[in-house]
Design brief:
The protein is α/β, with parallel strands linked by helices. The protein has two domains: 33 residues; 193 residues, TIM Barrel. Helices cover 35% and strands 21% of the residues. The chain has an eight-stranded mixed beta barrel. It starts with a helix and ends with a strand. About 4% of the residues have low confidence.
Length: 232
């Protein structure tokens, strides 16, 4: 009888611990959905928008605390974000500062990608610096691309895009891209890094923008948004 009682209490204790862990996990998940870095530490904060975010009420972004918007615009040699036109029209009715993002493809020549970007993104003195998203690796290309060619072509692309924009670009480098090529230390541009909830350090030098919460729930959209902060 004593053994049965001891087993019963151990089972109940284990069940209680599992319940508490589940409650704690649920609470952390709920808190994470609304988490943003402190305004005291990072006064300027904004969002990154693209077709994966669906329809977003641009006019409501200021109300939730966004100071700027970056729009995914072009990709590779011919890609265009499906929501770009709609987002640009909405931004045109607001005073929200915005900039454009190009998703760079190391498999496609720099000239073709630059032509795609400058065709889609208008030249405007009021635009924020262009952002080049670096995530795809050359090892994914059908034809072999040498590592040295990745940096060379990217430099060519940057020269053409910056000539169009009239200002230096920002490199949005993913952890896997930096691990593969280590370009953050070799190309002198401001960096945009990503890591949920924890400040990123994988580039080996200070960052300018940080995707702090990639799934922030807000009243501006039914979908979670990518929340970005600026480090001065």
């Amino acid at each position: 009888m004593g053994r049965k009682t001891s087993y019963s209490w151990r089972w109940r204790l284990a069940a209680l611990i599992l319940l508490l862990l589940a409650v704690a996990a649920g609470w952390l998940w709920w808190e994470a959905q609304g988490w943003r870095p402190s305004r005291e530490e990072f006064p300027t904060q904004g969002v990154l928008l693209g077709e994966s975010d669906g329809v977003v009420e641009i006019e409501a972004l200021a109300a939730i605390g966004a100071d700027f918007v970056y729009l995914e615009a072009s990709a590779g040699g011919s890609g265009r974000d499906a929501m770009l036109g709609d987002n640009l029209r909405k931004i045109g009715r607001s005073s929200m500062p915005y900039g454009a993002v190009h998703s760079y493809d190391p498999c496609i020549p720099a000239e073709r990608q630059a032509a795609n970007f400058v065709t889609i993104v208008p030249r405007g003195a009021g635009l924020l610096p262009p952002v080049i998203a670096l995530d795809r690796l050359a090892e994914d290309c059908e034809d072999e691309v040498l590592e040295a060619a990745v940096e060379s072509e990217l430099t060519t692309f940057l020269n053409q895009v910056e000539g169009h924009a009239g200002q230096p670009a920002i490199l949005q480098i993913s952890p896997r891209f930096e691990e593969a090529y280590g370009l953050a230390s070799r190309i002198e541009r401001n960096l945009w890094l990503e890591r949920p909830f924890l400040q990123p350090d994988y580039a080996g030098r200070p960052w300018t923008l940080w995707t702090a919460n990639p799934r922030l729930m807000t009243e501006a959209s039914s979908q979670p948004l990518r929340w970005v902060v600026v480090q001065r």
